[in-house]
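Quick start: what a row looks like.
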Amino acid sequence: MGEVPGPLVGAAEIQAMLGVSRSRFRQIVLMPHFPAPFQTLIGGSVWLRSDVEKYIREYRQPRAADDDE
């Protein structure tokens, strides 16, 4: 395999980026627009951070801040 084209993130980092639980994360990765893992390792899959950030920009609705309610 060649050079990695950018920072990688695993499940825990993506859960934090999305603000979701582990079980919700498992549902999200099965959705058709969620990016495929960059690589799957024995310890789990890793994604390119830029792919996940693009998914968030394009497919996630912004959440209201606490003071907006």
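That is the whole record. The chain has three helices and three strands. The longest helix spans residues 49-59.
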